[in-house]
Structures are given as C-alpha cells and as structure tokens.
Write a structure and sequence with these properties.
2 copies of one chain form a homodimer.
Chain A (H helix, E strand, L loop, with lengths): L2 H20 L3 H8 L3 H13 L1 E2 L1 H8 L3 H13 L3 E6 L2 E9 L1 H15 L1 H7 L3 H24 L1
Antiparallel strand pairs in A: 1-3, 2-3
Chain A binds a DNA duplex through helix 5 and strand 3.
Chain lengths: 149, 149
DNA sequence: GCATAAATTTAAGCCCGCTTAACTAAAAAG
DNA sequence: CTTTTTAGTTAAGCGGGCTTAAATTTATGC
C-alpha cells in the first residue's frame, strides 16, 4: 500500500470514528442552549478565529450579508458576542465572543470530546507520547495550510 | 506539563482544527445538495446504522415523532430513502438508504475530507509515517473502547 | 376480548433562517 | 470632488422545521 493510501485510509477511519462519536451529542447540546445551529456555528467560528466581520460569516456559511447580520444581532442581544466598530474601517464591524459566549462554547466542546478521556485511559505512556507528537505535527501542518490561504 | 495535559491539549487543538475544517466543507456540500441539515443528518445516520425506524430518528435528534415522520416523508419523496413496513411489527416502518441516497452521502464524506489531501501534501514522508502510526493507535484504542460498551 | 400502550401520520400554527430590495455610511477610484 | 464599490442594516415575505393535538393502526397486558 502506498504512503498516500496508508495516510488516507488511516485518516478516514479516524475521521469516521470521530464524527460518529462527537456529532452524536452535538445537536442535543445545541438544543439545550436554546441557540439555533447557525447561531452556534458562528460562536464556533469565533472560538476558532477570535474575531471576524459580518462578511466573513456570510462567506463562510454561504449566506447573504443580511442573514449574517441578523444572526449576529441575535447573538449580541443574547449576550454571547460583542459587536464593535472597526477603527481601521468604520463601515466594518468586529465580532468577538463575550465571556458568556466563550464559556458556553467551551462547555459544548468539552461535552463533544469528553469521550477522548476514556480513550486516553486505554493508552500506554509510550503510545501517548507518539500520539501527542503526531497530533502536534498535524496541528502545525493545518496551521501552515491556513496561512497559505 | 503532565502527560495527561499534553495529550489533552494536543488533542483539543487538533480537534478544534478538525471541526473547523470539516464542518465548513459539510455545510457547503449539504447546501449544494438542496437538502436541509436535518435531512442530511438522517442520511448520515442511515449510512452508519443501515436501517432505523421513525422513533430512532426522533430519539437521536431529540425531535418529536411527528417531525421525524415529516422529514422521512420528504426524503422518501426525493428518492433518497425507502420506507417499508416492518414485518415483525406492522405499526413500525423500516427506513433504508436507496442507492441514490448512498451515493450522495458518500460524496459528502469525500468532500468533507478533501482538505486532508492538501494537508497530507505539506508533510514529509517521515512525518507521514509518524502520523499514520499514531492514527492507527487511536483507531485501535477507539475500537477497544467500543467493545467495552 | 377489551383496554391500554406504542408507532406513525396528518393538520394547524409558530418561529426562525434566508432571500431580495432598498437604504445608510464610509472607503476607494478616477 | 464625484462616482463607484464595499460593509452592514432594515423590512417584507417565503419556506421549512418543529410542536401540539387528534387520528389511525397495530401490538400488548390483564
């Protein structure tokens, strides 16, 4: 088997597992927060990117600026994000998680990955080290990929 | 930093990246299919479970039986699933992917992992081997976890 | 057998996300 | 300085998902 196939196969198997485990409780958690999926997705993006503008949202989720603006408005109202004027371009807005928003999204993240603790417990110290090293390689590669875009 | 913290931190960083990327591809793909997210989620579940009933859907996604029934009806109409009577319990229905539904859901999976090819391209052969080894360790651990449950 | 429970469907109605269109305001282009 | 482009907001309206309530059909308990 070629290196590419090895990589692809291992990655897909892992991804399948991850999706199966993590997506399961996701909709339930989102529902329990009272937020809609689109609203939750915006919080997720802000958790990842720290800040973004209205157009970043519409671009990412492939919706109109109007829709993005409306969703952001609701999240501002509910206290999950703050919306400030961009000092460099007064047309633009800078969205950012509030502490409340961050706490909520962290709780969701924790819930989704809690099964990883059980998984870790089954690993020897040696295996754990190998996994950590590989994960760091992957995270770094993904980061460099992001910088290219 | 303890081994547990190392593991937890590395895993979370990677998961964050992973979620961010995969969700992105997913929403775009779902939109392009003309299906709604709930509809697509049902197809995803059927991809894993092969068959299920209406109540399985309502339970899994935490919606009413009525909602599950309506969603299923739309998927039957669009030709993505088939709905047959359960011979063992004529009240119940057995839902199953049609070939069309299966093709679509497989295409979605491929699209969701397409960015992994770009990621792989940035890795040296040596790093690739380390990653493959680690992924196999994780997959095996996840499997043993599953057997415990 | 009869009453009760379970699996699903249908209908009415609410809510929300999304779109288009019209508008404001600010930056960029010429 | 005027025109055009860009960023975002607002309003009206559509469509879809979800809920409750009521109905149907089949299984189960006594």
């Amino acid at each position: 088997m070629s290196k590419h196939l090895q990589f692809s196969k291992a990655m897909r198997a892992w991804m399948d597992m991850f999706m199966h485990r993590s997506m399961h409780g996701m909709t339930k958690f989102v529902k329990s927060t009272g937020l809609s999926m689109p609203q939750f997705s915006i919080l997720m993006q802000l958790r990842h990117k720290e800040t973004c503008g209205i157009s970043d949202i519409s671009e990412r989720f492939d919706i109109s600026n109007a829709a993005a603006s409306q969703l952001a408005e609701k999240l501002v109202q509910s206290g999950h994000i703050e919306r400030a004027e961009d000092p460099n371009d007064r047309r633009a807005k800078i969205l950012r998680l509030t502490q409340q928003g961050r706490d909520l999204i962290d709780a969701g993240f924790n819930e989704r990955v809690s099964w990883l603790n059980d998984l870790e417990a089954t690993l020897s110290a040696e295996k754990k080290l190998k996994v950590v090293a590989a994960l760091n390689i992957l995270a770094e590669a993904a980061k460099s990929l992001e910088e290219k875009e």
